[in-house]
Write a structure and sequence with these properties.
Organism: Triangularia verruculosa
Shape: globular
Strand content: 15-25%
CATH class of the largest domain: Alpha Beta
Number of helices: 12
Radius of gyration: 25 Å
Number of strands: 25
CATH topology of the largest domain: TIM Barrel
Strand order of the largest sheet: 3-2-7-20-21-22-23
Keywords: Hydrolase
InterPro entries: Amidohydro-rel, Metal-dep_hydrolase_composite, Metal_Hydrolase, Metallo-dep_Hydrolase, OTAase-like
GO molecular function: hydrolase activity, acting on carbon-nitrogen (but not peptide) bonds
Pfam families: Amidohydro_1
Structural class: alpha/beta
Length: 488
């Protein structure tokens, strides 16, 4: 008998089959026919992947029929910010400075649902943007079944040097306490010993990976941003008003990577320019994010070093789409050059700068750049797992194999013929649990439930002086597997 308000933890252990007619295998980069996947909902794992001899199959009670759809592993977004929403609605500074922690957490909960229903079963979340380690807390809530969402691999606070990645305001008044007080945007660390200590702090705060700002536009206050009204504009600003410049020396970058290796977690390096990106690649980071400009003319040297070091590039083209048209075109051409050269790509849009649930835009743009459909899908699955650290993440996901997480999605159309197919996700399973079926959300909200027999009959409870009130508990919805002919 469940105690009042207790959460039942028993999960069905009987396996079931997911039958497909067309399935994308990202390891082989092929679309395979007539594959069935056996899933154990008790462990959330794939038990077996079987090639059927024909299109026909027997469907048993609890099996799932996805024939007629295009089945993929759950998608991985390799660059997200779960606590940020579209900059078109409110810019990043305003969100970090003005929105309450409660509002941002509520929004993040909604973002997690939107991402999951869009087919993204894993998020590599690269910084809370002024909310400390709240991403680790949200990750834990999802892992405990308190709220639905992608599997979160989180960075907590990003690392940056003094005076680099912070909320910039002119109203400081010399630091005498009379100026505007703003939240901390990063974990400030300087020097070899300082950055090693910062990595240890991040690990202690629950980080799954380290994010470091290899460069940033840190000279904002030399020529402050223009504001409306008389006297609000710098009259003669330089052509490169606030370029991205390195935040860390090569020695500091190497120390960050070495300390992260001791903790057995990967490192993601933000780099707007090729110069800092090259330093990061040489230091041995796992991934480099962005690379929007090549002022130093180091593009070819960078690609060579990234290929040699097996550094993954997460180009975040979906956020670059907001840049001026000529700059965005340059970014796309750079991605095509890197792809042709053999640089490893992972799909991550800097999601949050545009709204969660629209994550697939990154894969669409990769294909527009000239990346094959198969390679673009691989960038959003297996390469995403590698960006999360591979086996260092503690899980295997992004392809179909015995022992991997049972993350399965289905599309209504074929991405080889429909460029918007990834927007048409009709089925989502994560860890063996169905969250979307026939295009509709399933069991997204827990509701109070009466146990079948609470031990209290009307006769036994008629005397208020004897007996106890009926017991009531909150139920975490368990997987409900239905046959082909049953409604959802």
């Amino acid at each position: 008998m469940c105690l009042p308000h207790s959460v039942p933890t028993t999960i069905p252990s009987t396996t079931f089959q997911v039958h497909t007619s067309l399935l994308f295998d990202p390891k082989e980069k092929v679309f395979a026919k007539n594959i069935s996947i056996e899933v154990n909902p008790g462990t959330g794992e794939i038990v077996a992947v079987t090639k059927r001899p024909s299109e026909s199959f027997n469907i048993n009670d609890g099996d799932i029929d996805l024939t007629g759809k295009v089945v993929l592993p759950g998608l991985v977004d390799s660059h997200t910010h779960i606590f940020i929403h579209s900059y078109e609605e409110r810019n990043g500074t305003q969100q970090m400075r003005d929105q309450s922690a409660v509002e941002r957490i509520v929004r993040a909960t909604n973002h997690a649902r939107a991402a999951l229903l869009a087919g993204y079963t894993t998020y590599r979340d690269l910084g809370t943007e002024a909310l400390g380690n709240a991403d680790a807390n949200l990750r834990d809530c999802i892992n405990r079944g308190l709220t639905p969402g992608p599997r979160l691999l989180v960075a907590t606070d990003a690392l940056a040097s003094s005076g680099s990645y912070e909320l910039r305001v002119e109203n400081k008044l010399g630091g005498n306490g009379l100026g505007l007080s703003v939240p901390r945007a990063c974990d400030v660390a300087d020097g070899v010993d300082g950055v090693r200590a910062a990595v240890r702090r991040r690990v202690g705060d629950g980080a799954d990976l380290i994010k470091v700002y290899a460069d940033y536009r840190r000279k904002t206050m030399r020529f402050p941003p223009d504001v409306p009204g008389p006297g609000g504009q710098v009259l003669f600003p330089p052509k490169r008003r606030n370029p991205a410049v390195p935040l860390y020396s090569k020695e500091e970058m190497e120390a960050i990577v070495k300390e992260a290796q001791l903790a057995e977690i990967p490192v993601a390096a933000h780099a707007g320019e090729t110069k800092a990106a090259l330093w990061a690649a040489e230091a041995g980071v796992t991934t480099i994010e962005h690379i929007f400009e090549d002022s130093a003319g180091l593009e070819q040297a960078l690609f060579h070093r990234m290929k040699e070091k097996k550094t993954i590039w997460v180009p975040t083209l979906a956020t670059a789409e907001a840049l001026p048209a000529d700059m965005f075109q340059s970014c796309k051409l750079r991605v095509k050059k890197a792809y042709d050269y053999g640089v490893r790509l992972a799909a991550g849009g800097d999601t949050g700068t545009f709204n969660h649930g629209l994550n697939a835009r990154e894969v669409e743009i990769l294909i527009q750049c000239g990346v094959s459909v198969e390679d673009a899908l691989e960038a959003a699955t297996v390469a995403g797992w590698e960006a999360c650290g591979g086996d260092l993440s503690g899980f295997r996901f992004g392809w179909f194999e015995k022992g991997n997480r049972a993350d399965i999605i289905a599309l209504e159309t074929d991405p080889r013929s429909d460029e918007k197919a990834l927007r048409k996700v009709s089925f989502v399973m994560k860890d063996g649990r169905v969250w979307k079926r026939d295009g509709f959300a399933v069991d997204m909200i827990s509701v109070p439930q009466w146990p079948d027999d609470d031990g209290n009959t009307s006769e036994g409870w008629s005397d208020l002086g004897a007996g106890t009130p009926p017991k009531m508990y909150m139920s975490v919805p368990l997987p409900v597997f239905r046959g082909r002919n049953q409604s959802s």
